From TrEMBL:
SUPFAM superfamilies: P-loop containing nucleoside triphosphate hydrolases. GO terms for molecular function: ATP hydrolysis activity. Belongs to the GSP E family. It comes from Candidatus Iainarchaeum sp. The lineage of its organism: Archaea, Candidatus Iainarchaeota, Candidatus Iainarchaeia, Candidatus Iainarchaeales, Candidatus Iainarchaeaceae. This is Flp pilus assembly complex ATPase component TadA.
């Protein structure tokens, strides 16, 4: 916005003409009076009453008509100026912003926190992690901006002016960071060029940031959204601390608290508007994905008795790689090399794999890692309830389920999408989680030449996985289990020293399905005493298949897996990080292998 933006507005308010109107009048030969030459807002005489001053501005504004808005090349209705001025008048009459001290409002949780003994265990940025004696959960502290009184009223004034002056819908700017920056700059310009608000220069950025948080941010939980060390943010109602799940400290309590249910519902409605959805008494549930990939679930009364709730599962900007899983102990180099070989299939026969485990065991993370082994020459279609996968593939089609509309129509289930994907000539199909009829469609893909397809399912063991898949509501015939090669089992466990850990506890091969009685053979088993994934002595049918298709001996294939394990270990030593860089190194390895 030009520095003389508000000056131009006041020029018009004081009697100037709109340039387009002036040109039109000149063309018609109409007489016009010269515009006022004032360079800024009129000065108020020392003895002038505020009411007379603002009344004069409003009267002049009515005569002058609309002013041009260089932000959107539209027009600013005089009513906007009138409202800003009227509200500024009420602020000045109540308490000038320049004389106002920032009001600090402490929640009940913060007041209790100030009174207890605590030990700081870590800090990063503005965040501090504390341990409070006698409490199991760690305490997460971050500065909370809670403007109160006149500050809040001024913020509301700026919000209203911004909404009317900037006509672009915020969420048309898809990138969250670009959206924030755009609005911050525009709001800062509006504040800077609105002297009638009487905001001291030192607080311009404070007000701009506060308005951005409320308009395109997440209000008081904004710092939590920006913290990449958090996996989940959980609002469980008003007058109750917000909980989080930290990647290092697990479940934690925070100093953030919503004072009433309206605050929570305002935030839920703001999120719903981002994705074109609505939350009300008739439709009190929201399950969706944000533009940054984060998954959000929200409820309002009457579905939740104690008040509105909000759960945000944060999307990791740079997804975990196979090296990350090795470094965190989820699996070791031998297990990683084995799975790499299975997914890539030595270029002849990729394996079909299901990843099973409980909630929070890391199934989706492992699925994303395995999918990163897929050669980029293949056409891959992913089907998910809420799109979470992030793959380094070029020929990748993402499909996402959709709930029915308000009229009960327009639903897109995983089953419908999976069946449709088979008509799109995919090389591989990946289903985020099978629960119902989509299981049959995925197993159809397993059995119709879409080798290397993947999926996840809720189950706690390989045998339980088979029982679940072949029983209602999935009802996959036992004979179709022959299309499934391996089941990976993952668990979330608690370690006294390490806290919450995720471990791949079993890799099992599915056999005897064609005989009508599918069973599993454990190929890798997690040893809790050594905390490592160990290869068993069991024979493997898939190994025999690779021998037949490649012409390599069992020894040669096992040596290749050992080479891959050494290669992955070396990448960790070389501090290779990030999905793109790791995928690039894996691609280089395969290119060299093909030349040998």
């Amino acid at each position: 916005m030009p520095a003389n933006y508000m000056d131009n507005l006041f020029d018009k308010i004081k009697g100037g003409k709109d340039p387009k109107k002036q040109a039109a009048e000149e063309k018609k030969g109409a007489q016009k009076s010269p515009p006022a030459q004032a360079a800024g807002p009129p000065k108020m005489a020392a003895n002038a009453a505020p009411n007379d001053y603002y009344a004069k501005i409003i009267e002049n504004a009515k005569r002058a008509g609309p002013a041009k808005d260089p932000l959107e090349k539209g027009e600013v209705p005089v009513q906007i100026i009138e409202k800003i001025v009227k509200k500024a008048e009420s602020r000045a009459a109540a308490k000038p912003a320049a004389a106002e001290e920032e009001e600090v409002v402490l929640s009940k949780t913060e007041k209790e926190f100030e009174q207890v003994q605590k030990v700081e265990v870590e800090s990063y940025g503005d965040t501090k992690i504390y341990q409070i004696p006698g409490q199991e959960l760690y305490y997460y502290w971050t500065p909370v901006i809670r403007p109160g009184g006149a500050e809040k009223a001024i913020i509301n004034t700026i919000k209203e002016a911004t909404t009317r002056i900037i006509s672009i819908t915020p969420y048309k700017i898809r990138d969250p960071e670009q959206r924030r920056n755009f609005y911050f700059q525009k709001i800062l310009e509006i504040i800077t060029n609105s002297p009638e608000l009487n905001i001291p220069k030192g607080k311009h950025q404070f007000y701009a940031d506060a308005v951005v948080r409320e308009m395109v941010g997440y209000g008081i939980i904004d710092p939590l959204i920006k913290d990449d060390k958090l996996e989940e943010i959980m609002v469980i109602g008003p007058n109750t601390p917000v909980y989080i799940f930290h990647r290092k400290y697990d479940m934690m309590i925070t100093n953030i608290e919503f004072y009433n249910d309206n605050e929570i519902q305002d935030l839920i409605n703001r999120i719903a508007r981002q994705i074109g959805r609505r939350v009300d008494i008739a439709s009190p549930l929201l399950d969706a994905r944000l533009s940054d990939g984060s998954r959000v679930n929200a409820t309002i009364p009457p579905s939740t008795v104690g008040g509105s709730t909000l759960t945000i599962r944060k999307f990791r900007e740079d997804p975990f790689t196979i090296l990350d899983l090795m470094k965190t102990g989820t699996l070791n180099a031998k297990g990683a090399a084995f799975l790499w070989t299975c997914v890539e299939g030595l270029g002849v026969r990729p394996a079909n794999i299901l990843i099973a485990g409980g909630t929070g065991s890391g199934k989706t993370t492992t699925l994303n890692v395995l999918a990163s082994f897929i050669p980029e020459t293949e056409r891959v279609i992913t089907i998910e309830d809420t799109a979470e996968l992030s793959l380094p593939l070029r020929h990748w089609i993402r499909m996402e389920a959709r709930p029915p509309g308000l009229e009960g129509s327009g639903e897109l289930t995983l089953d419908i999408l999976t069946k449709n994907s088979l008509r799109m000539r995919p090389d591989r199909v990946i289903v985020g989680e099978i629960r119902h009829d989509e299981a049959f469609a995925l197993f159809t893909a397993f059995n119709t030449g879409h080798d290397g397809s993947l999926g996840t399912v809720h189950a706690n063991s390989s045998q339980e996985t088979i029982i679940r898949v072949t029983s209602p509501p999935m009802n996959v015939p036992e004979v179709m289990m022959s299309g499934l090669n391996f089941i990976i089992i993952q668990h979330r466990l608690h370690d006294k020293k390490l806290g919450t850990i995720r471990r791949m506890t079993e890799i099992a091969e599915v056999t005897d399905a064609l005989k009508g009685r599918p069973k599993t053979t454990t190929i890798f088993k997690w040893d809790p005493y050594t905390d490592s994934l160990k290869r068993t002595d069991e024979a493997m049918e898939y190994m025999v298949l690779l021998e037949d298709l490649t012409g390599l001996s069992k020894k040669a294939i096992e040596e290749e897996m050992d080479h891959r394990a050494q290669f992955l270990t070396q990448l960790i030593k070389n501090d290779v990080k990030g999905m793109q860089e790791v995928s690039g190194k894996l691609k280089e390895y395969l290119m060299l292998q093909n030349k040998r």
